[in-house]
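User: I'm writing a short methods note and want a consistent example. For Large polyvalent protein associated domain-containing protein, I'll paste the sequence; you return only the structure tokens, no commentary, since I'll be parsing the reply automatically.
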Amino acid sequence: YEKLGDKMENANRAALFNATLSKSKSKLKAAFEARDLMDFTLHGASKWVRTLTSIIPFSNAMLQGKYKLARSTKEHSEAVATLAGMTILVSLFEYFMWGDDEDWDSRPDWDKDSYFQVKIPGTDTRFKIPKPHEFAMVGNLAWRGIDMARKNDPVHGELLASAVRTAVFREFDTTPLPHFIKPFVEIGMNENLYFNKPIESKGMQHLSPENRKSLYTSDTAGLISGVLQNIP
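Assistant:
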């Protein structure tokens, strides 16, 4: 699995290396461009940034992605604008195609923001395609704006503002908490910070701790809960 992942990750690097080599005839330049495609070894010179990236998983990957996008926007503005426009068009196509479908509309916001859902007409079969990072946000804002205008409901102004905040937060998800502390903070707040929803519903909070489970609660979690409940 790791070898397959490495091959898929390096496919774009190899293609860029060959393309640059054929143009510049310089192996050094080709190697630099291939590595610079997404160089996760970059950490910056700021001490506080290095501290954050060392304790918060994937924060460096997020920062490098935004840094690379900013550079690409400056150096290849037409290509970036084309990709952003294509993402908006695909997002709007999905919305107009399935926006009135009950199954599509019942999807949680985080799922709509993260995946394109393709449903085979006349069946219940559907599959998801991950949306591209960075560009997904402009597509999500586009279809949500159209959704608010179509429904012409004052309440949807608040929902749109909430959705925008959630989309931006999810795109720049850098909660300054080490992940070994984050679960305890979420439990104390009773909120999943990524999905932006309560961990336990209001209905569950009226039940005794040992009965706060659903169809999706694993047997292992139930067993651990029972053991912890009996600890004096």
